[in-house]
Amino acid sequence: MFSRFSGFFVGAFFGLVFVLVNSGPPLSSAVAFTVRSLAVGVAVAIVVLALLAMRKGTPGEGEGARGPRFGAFFGVVTMIEVALIIGGAMTIGRLDGVPDQAGVAWVALVVGLHFLPWPGTGSSGSCSSWPGTPPRWARSAWSWR
Questions:
Q1: How far apart are the C-alpha atoms of 5 and 51, rounded to whole Å?
Q2: Residue 134 burial by CB count (10 A; 0-12/13-18/19+): exposed, middle or buried?
Q3: How far apart (Å, rounded) are the C-alpha atoms in residues 87 and 81?
Q4: Chain-centre distance of CA 75, in angstroms?
Q5: pLDDT tens-digit profile of 113-123?
Q6: Does the pTM exceed 0.70?
């Protein structure tokens, strides 16, 4: 049951971190405080609602015992994204004359890339939607099950 709602927890956590990190200057203190307060409230509401739904819900018909939702390929893609975000943000931070907002744009670009439809996936986007078998190009790069 937890795996059905893991996306809510991941999204709430990383969305909250994104807002907290990026809601500083040039925003005024009052606006930054308001935005951060709203983000905390929304994240808490998402977690509470997901926990209530987990507690209340039972697996639907045909859901029974399933394997993990995210396989090794998803983990590799996530690690690559984290490395790109950290490395890119550090590189952008060292460049002279680059506005602070460039780091925000870099993070949004890297996170958004996994929603693109990749060739051979049969998917409209997001590597998490590959149900069990990754695309051909990924199978050649990593051994799969």
A1: 8
A2: buried
A3: 10
A4: 12
A5: 766 655 555 54
A6: no
